[in-house]
Amino acid sequence: MAGKSGRTITNVPEKSLKKTLFCWEGMLVVLFILINIFCAGISQSYQFSNVLREMPKYLTEMFLLFPMAFILVLGEIDISVGATVCLSATMTCMASNKGLPFGMVILVALLVGTVCGLVNGLILTNFQELPPMIVTLGTQIVFRGIAEIALGSGGSISLTNADGFRMIAGKVGIIPYIFFVVIIMAVLFSVVLAKTTFGRSVYAIGSNRLAAYYSGIHVQTIRLIIYTVMGFMAGLAALFLTSVLYGANTTTGNGFEMDAIAMAVFGGISTSGGKGRLLGGIISGFTIICLRIGLGQINMNPQLILIILGILLILAVLLPNISAKLNVKKKA
Amino acid sequence: MKENKSVLKKITDSREASLLIVLIVLCIVISLRSPSFMTLKSISDMLKNNAVIMIMTLGMLGVLLIGGIDISIASTLAFSGMSVGMLMKYGMVQNTFVLFLIAIGIGALCGLLIGLIISRGKVLPIIATMGFMYIYRGLAYIIANSQWASAENLGTFKDFALGSVLGVNNVIIVMVICYIIFFIVMKWTKIGRMVYAVGSNREAAQISGINTANVELLVYTVMGTLSGLCGALAVSIYSSAQPNMLYGREMDVIAACVIGGVSMTGGRGSVAGALLGSLILAIIAKALPLVGIEAIAQNTVKGVIILVVIVLNVITQRMMDKNNLKGREM
């Protein structure tokens, strides 16, 4: 690829065993194994089958992680997803209780989520000056507010007929269906982000929006699609969450957006955009889930678990920065 | 050219003036619907109940001005408030003044830690404060140890929010003092102007000799200090200390700033704007039940209002830019 100036430009990074091991994903895999050993050490009941049984509840957050990674790579943020899950779960329960066939119920869940995402996307693409944080803050309050109105004074709803939901909460052997759905989605989103024109455009927008725009990338269309997909996935998460909880209330999905962002950031996806791979996010997602299950099994105070997660999150970002600083000093 | 600029144009040009008009119109409409709104007692109650949000809006103003964000404030508040509550409950400290100092101290330490991580560790503010949101809230639960401090535990401490000087409630006095200090500091001191400089153009500020990292550290510490103060105030106002105090209300604080015209990208915003923004939010919350909107729909209305305000803001900004360009062509 010799250019006019005679310089050779290579954008294929060299591959070596050392690099693979010491990259962020490699470290995460090591951490994942260490945490599993640690959990097995502290809890007798931390066994494969038990972990799989507990997993569906936590795996719903993974659905949010995939599109959130896209949004973070764009250099943006969406804090309305928790509220979207809440609204979608509420509507799903209501549709099911109205006696609609289960196919329609699924449709309702996905549709409500998609519409919420579309609303975010339309506001953000029509008024590009607005920071996503503020818009999604506003829609977060609105979505949860609508759910509150729909739920009425009781503030909660439970399924009267959970047959369909029991079906999607089923298992193949000991592995729940949701596990397969997550894996399929993980592969799908990873391939789209890493290997397709669409995915590379997302990186381009995240690195330099103006440059991306002038090189002919439809920035606003891509943003609209991503926010809509975010809503769709929130709907899917709501569907599976309902199959675990058999109901919804006004606090359903509280903090989901933060968990999804934390998983992504811990996986090496930068919130300033343009950096990170979905693979890291997926590994870190599973790591956090395993840690939560393990600590939950020894009945650790859930608040203490949150503190540990908070510290891990900050360390995950702080450590590379510090080591980079030290490297610069060494070279100087 | 100057004479041509009519009074009306001046008013629409200034963000604070247009906010003031919105505020006045809101007040008139509400008092037409419900005469009880414009009484001194009702306004004083409203200010007292929103004092916590209004004071924290000041700190958030500083943080947003340098282009940062802090979503850990409600957790810092809970942590310091819960500390005060537990100290009272177990009778370790009874003096109101000392308790306030302790709360402010805890808040300042919390803020200092956040500031260090952000300014020295170069961690993005949203990530760092998200982590600390978990950590401080968790600490609040842990020192609570599944207990909570109720009115009878709080003895003389809760009297602070009931007492008044010259007919003005203590809480409102604290708030007014905070606003006056901030107004003076932001407008007329070197530190205040440094904050604006860093927010408008960080590199330029650095080159002109401002230690940007220290300015960053300062605003987060101030934010923490105010959150700590508000922790003590909240315990006194609601005469109870619970670890889930003001859960999620950091968003209200950010919303108040944004409505008040503080830019999320830094460099733009004023104390007057923050005051008007938080007042508008407080009045809306107070007015919704008065004009007959059910409690259950209030969040939706609040969210819609935030969205409408920010969208209107963009539209007026676009119109202003267009007008400015027109002037240039001629």
Topology, number of strands of chain B: 2
* Tally of helical runs of chain A: 14
Mean pLDDT of chain A: 85
What is the CATH architecture term of chain A?
Answer: Orthogonal Bundle
Average pLDDT figure of chain B: 84
What is the assembly state of the chains in this entry? heterodimer
- What name does the CATH topology of chain A carry? ABC transporter involved in vitamin B12 uptake, BtuC
CATH topology of chain B: ABC transporter involved in vitamin B12 uptake, BtuC
CATH class of chain B: Mainly Alpha
Radius of gyration of chain A equals: 21 Å
Parts with pLDDT < 50 across at least 5 consecutive residues of chain B: none
Low-confidence stretches of chain A: none
CATH architecture of chain B: Orthogonal Bundle
Helix content of chain A: over 70%
Find the structural class of chain A using helix and strand composition. Answer: mainly alpha
| Beta strand % of chain B | under 5%
- Work out the helicity level of chain B: over 70%
- What is the ordering of alpha helices and beta strands of chain A? HHHHHHEHEEHHHHEHHH
What would you call the structural class of chain B? mainly alpha
How would you describe this protein?
The complex is a heterodimer of chains A (332) and B (330). Chain A has 332 residues and is mainly α. Chain A has a single domain (50-296, 304-312), classed as ABC transporter involved in vitamin B12 uptake, BtuC. Chain A has helices at residues 17-22, 24-42, 48-73, 81-97, 102-126, 132-151, 163-168, 177-195, 197-207, 209-214, 219-245, 256-266, 278-297, 302-331; strands at residues 156-158, 171-172, 175-176, 247-249. In chain A, strands 1-4 form a two-stranded antiparallel ribbon. Chain A is globular, with a radius of gyration of 21 Å. In chain B, helix 4 (73-89) crosses helix 11 and helix 5 runs antiparallel to helix 6 (125-144). Chain B has helices at residues 7-13, 15-33, 40-65, 73-89, 96-119, 125-144, 159-162, 170-188, 190-200, 202-207, 212-238, 250-259, 271-290, 298-329, and strands at residues 164-165, 168-169. Chain B is an all-alpha fold and 330 residues long. Chain B has a two-stranded antiparallel sheet. The radius of gyration of chain B is 21 Å and the shape is globular. Chain B has one domain: ABC transporter involved in vitamin B12 uptake, BtuC (Orthogonal Bundle), CATH 1.10.3470. Chain B is built from 14 helices and 2 strands. Chain A binds chain B through residues 77, 123, 127, 129-131, 133-135, 137-146, 148-149, 152-153, 258, 261-262, 265, 270-272, 301, 303-304, 306-307, 309-311, 313-314, 317-318, 321-322, 325, and chain B through 69, 117, 121-124, 126-128, 130-135, 137-139, 141-142, 243, 251, 254-255, 258, 264-265, 296-304, 306-307, 310-311, 314, 317.
